[in-house]
Description:
Chains A, B: This is Alpha/beta hydrolase. Chains A, B: InterPro entries: AB_hydrolase_fold. Chains A, B: It comes from Kitasatospora aureofaciens (Streptomyces aureofaciens). The structure is a homodimer. Chain A is an alpha/beta fold. Chain A has a single domain, classed as Alpha/Beta hydrolase fold, catalytic domain (Rossmann fold), CATH 3.40.50. In chain A, 39% of the residues lie in helices and 23% in strands. Chain A has helices spanning 55-68, 87-102, 107-132, 151-161, 176-183, 203-212, 233-246; strands at residues 4-12, 15-22, 25-32, 41-45, 71-75, 144-148, 166-172, 190-195, 218-223. In chain A, strands 1-2-3-5-4-6-7-8-9 form a nine-stranded mixed β-sheet, with helices on both faces. In chain A, helix 6 (203-212) links the parallel strand 8 (190-195) and strand 9. The longest helix of chain A has 26 residues, at 107-132. Chain A is globular and about 50 Å long. The interface between A and B is medium-sized, with 21 and 21 residues.
Amino acid sequence: MNAFLLTAESTTDGIVERDFTVxxxxxxxxxxxxxxxxxxxxxxxxxxxxxxxxxAMSGRAAHLVRDCGYHVAVLDAPGHGDRPRTEHxxxxxxxxxxxxxxxxxxxxxxxxxxxxxxxxAVPEYRALLDALQQLPEIGTDGPVGFWGINMGxxxxxxxxxxxxxxxxxxxxxxxxxxLAEYAKRITVPVEFDLQWDDEHISREEGLALxxxxxxxxxxxxxxxxxxKELPRFEVESAVRFFARHxxxxxxxxx
Amino acid sequence: MNAFLLTAESTTDGIVERDFTVxxxxxxxxxxxxxxxxxxxxxxxxxxxxxxxxxAMSGRAAHLVRDCGYHVAVLDAPGHGDRPRTEHxxxxxxxxxxxxxxxxxxxxxxxxxxxxxxxxAVPEYRALLDALQQLPEIGTDGPVGFWGINMGxxxxxxxxxxxxxxxxxxxxxxxxxxLAEYAKRITVPVEFDLQWDDEHISREEGLALxxxxxxxxxxxxxxxxxxKELPRFEVESAVRFFARHxxxxxxxxx
Lengths: 254, 254
């Protein structure tokens, strides 16, 4: 049994925000103020160096809550946000900054560090889903999606590979070295983003990870631009992807 | 001076449809019943074996007219629709059917036949644009887009490469052999569709054509599925692409 504790609640512009911990891991749940009963749920995972309430997380959640009427939840990843950083976190972060300063490839460090974090985070996300499905307004009968880019993909691909309750997922911008083996076990519809001029992830690496998904229905969105230049309109595309696969039409105001 | 003759006009569900000929080439112009003044214009080109009023053309046009308030025009390609077929058309079509029946690659025949048709069609599209910009409700000050997949790309890529009035284009599903050289001269924003399991165009060929565009802003949409299985939602994506680049917000009823 998971220890799920609500720690704060507020409502702004029609969105209910609830802070919680699940087995001590801090997270946030956003829900529509009305009509939330048994609405679909989307689990998000944030990018490296960010946290559960980073504007990328709260902004995507606002789309999903307002336009689709979904519940949306995010956890702080290990070593991120309100969670303690271990000596291992400090060492790997220092190695990443040193590589960046020296103009050396970041990939090998990010791949191994994210793999380490994913091994910790996957059971945390499973416990999160167990706990959220105990809430009467969510329950076990609604569809569940997953949305994570960058480090969110490093956590999400092994999570979705092992989690039959996830029925659609948006991933992107990571290397195939560790993740392709997990992706081969994923068969649900996938939308995958990559940047054509990514200075860290080569085109071949990005395409290899997309290719690895066993999903009969998968879409790849490539955009010109560097690693951090993923266009804002891909957020709206992901929202429409979830609306197609999890149900409930995108709101006219989208 | 081009000979532009209106031959029929009707209005259905808020869309005005006008048949015309420009220098004898038959075409159709769809416009919103109200608010059409100096609205953006999108030129479409149809796929091989189809014609200007094929449901793919009228369906896409209905989105652009209703959701964005644009004018949309299409010509019958040489040897297609209401236009006469030459001996050369008959010979190439027979060669294509023979290759298909024998299970031989269609690419070499399609590439050379579409190149032949494009050389005829490009000046026809230029004359079309000249003529439409003479209409008081279109004029020369509004932005102009181009949308053509399959043979529409074979015509559109050389047309847009030579036509500075086109400011955004949607292409897809063709080979790079002839078109990559033209694509290198295109710098306007491009959205490009390819099918990941296309039985005629290999992934490498599709990616090579996308790569060739010189556009600073370009997006590639890859979907699982065979040549004819381009998902319907790519139509809506293209409409949003034009709304971003030609102006006028996508209608809430989209």
